[in-house]
What does this fold into?
Amino acid sequence: MEEKRVIKGVERGRRFEITVDGEKVIAYEGETIGAALMAAGRRTLRYTNKKEHPRGLYCGIGLCQECRMVINGVANTQACKTLAAPGCQVETQKSDKKRGV
It folds into this structure.
C-alpha cells in the first residue's frame, strides 16, 4: 500500500514491521497501531456484530471504541491507544457471523 505519512520536517523513531492480517505494515517507535494502519491506507479495523458494517479509526483518543482489533491474541483492544511494537500480531476483528461462530 502507498505510504500516507507526512515526510517533510518530521523526525521519527526506529522503523520496524508489524503483521496485520498476514501482511507486513511499517510502523515507527512511539506510533500507535491505529496511526500505522492509517498511514498504510488501511481503513477497516473491525466489523460490527449485528450488521457486519466496517468500522475504523474515528476519534483516535480511545473514546468511541470503533478501532477495536485483535492485538497479540487479545480481542477488543483499541488500536488508537496501543503502541506498535516490533513483531506485533494484529487482526481485523470480525463479527461472530464472519468468524463462523
